[in-house]
């Protein structure tokens, strides 16, 4: 039985993370991992994580506390195209929620997520994980929240 884990992106695995890729039709839904790794260097209280299937990095996530609304946000979540459709993304969402709960020292009430309104896979996965859709963001994404 395979084990799914999340591990911090660091100098030993960042190059692995930037080799991951989504399907061509999904590329407009998520920023590149290289961009996300660079961005997280300048964000306080944000974390970049590799999603592992046993010892193989198969996905990437970035999450943390947004300084504007003081909620946790999952800013990035992707699973490499080769490993999609195997339940890895769903398990990764659960692991991210658990990690956020363990670092929630400020009693922050919500985890927020935004996704393209046409991304039915994301909509279904987040709904299944317990996220409830709220409003449409000014930048056009569907927002959803998870009550901690």
UniProtKB/TrEMBL annotation:
Residues annotated as domain N-acetyltransferase: 4-148
Annotated InterPro entries: Acyl_CoA_acyltransferase, GNAT_dom
The organism's place on the tree of life at top rank: Bacteria
CDD domains: NAT_SF (cd04301)
Protein's name in the database: GNAT family N-acetyltransferase
Species the sequence originates in: Bacillus suaedaesalsae
């Amino acid at each position: 039985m395979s084990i799914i884990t999340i591990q911090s992106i660091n100098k030993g695995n960042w190059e692995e993370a930037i080799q991951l890729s989504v399907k061509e039709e999904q590329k407009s839904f998520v920023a590149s991992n290289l961009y996300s790794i660079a961005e997280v260097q300048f964000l306080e209280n944000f974390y970049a994580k590799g999603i592992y299937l046993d010892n193989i990095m198969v996905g990437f996530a970035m999450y943390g506390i947004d300084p504007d609304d003081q909620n946790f946000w999952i800013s990035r979540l992707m699973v490499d195209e080769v490993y999609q459709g195997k339940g890895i993304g769903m398990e990764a969402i659960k692991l991210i929620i658990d990690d956020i709960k363990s670092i929630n020292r400020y009693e922050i009430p919500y985890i927020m997520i935004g996704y393209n309104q046409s991304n039915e896979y994301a909509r279904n996965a987040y709904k299944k994980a317990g996220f409830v859709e709220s409003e449409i963001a000014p930048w056009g994404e569907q927002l959803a929240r998870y009550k901690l």
